[in-house]
């Protein structure tokens, strides 16, 4: 077989192999055991199988082209240091992915903060993908995630909203506390148990600071956060509560 025929055959095998890989992956996805896995484990399994099949396909194409495997190994060996460094990173990412699957610090759809990034996520063989609230896609190596502190905002059923409000020093603390508590209790999606909280928590010579705390379901956190900000601010204004005096700085 001439070299041109080998190239044509290799291209055909590559194209056909691509369709076969897609068919195999679709078949695995339809298996009952695959459907029984949660989305995190299923994505990781599919990513692993896809990479394995592509490696087999590329080896087959190389053999069709008549390139001796010994020559390929020799070329790879001549780049040993670079390959070794690359594999170290790749293997550490794979190991990180396995550890994420075993210990499960977060699940599909959870909102997490990790390695300086925040978003919902999906795990692949080498990387974890985060999608931010403003719809940016962030790709973080699994090895970085396993070596970083992970904050999972979705793991618990309930979350607490904490807010601080400043009022003038001349106001009466007990009245301010009552106004804030009434505003919290009138806010939708705020839970009555655990009970809302509003107390004087600090201040200086110009103002008093009150801390408001309210519990809600984790899925409602941001709705409650913004509603409380608005409702408490409006309640204080409607009651004629004075704002802190502004300190003027003169040159």
From TrEMBL:
Annotated membrane topology: Multi-pass membrane protein
Gene3D superfamilies: 1.10.287.1260, 2.30.30.60, 3.30.70.100
Protein localization: Cell inner membrane; Cell membrane
Keyword Ion transport belongs to the record: yes
Organism the protein comes from: Mesosutterella porci
Protein name per its UniProtKB record: Small-conductance mechanosensitive channel
Annotated family: Belongs to the MscS (TC 1.A.23) family.
Transmembrane segments: 6-25, 45-66, 72-91
Primary role: Mechanosensitive channel that participates in the regulation of osmotic pressure changes within the cell, opening in response to stretch forces in the membrane lipid bilayer, without the need for other proteins. Contributes to normal resistance to hypoosmotic shock. Forms an ion channel of 1.0 nanosiemens conductance with a slight preference for anions.
Alphabetized UniProt keyword annotations: Cell inner membrane, Cell membrane, Ion channel, Ion transport, Membrane, Transmembrane, Transmembrane helix, Transport
Stretches assigned to the Mechanosensitive ion channel MscS domain: 91-154
Domain Mechanosensitive ion channel MscS C-terminal stretches: 161-242
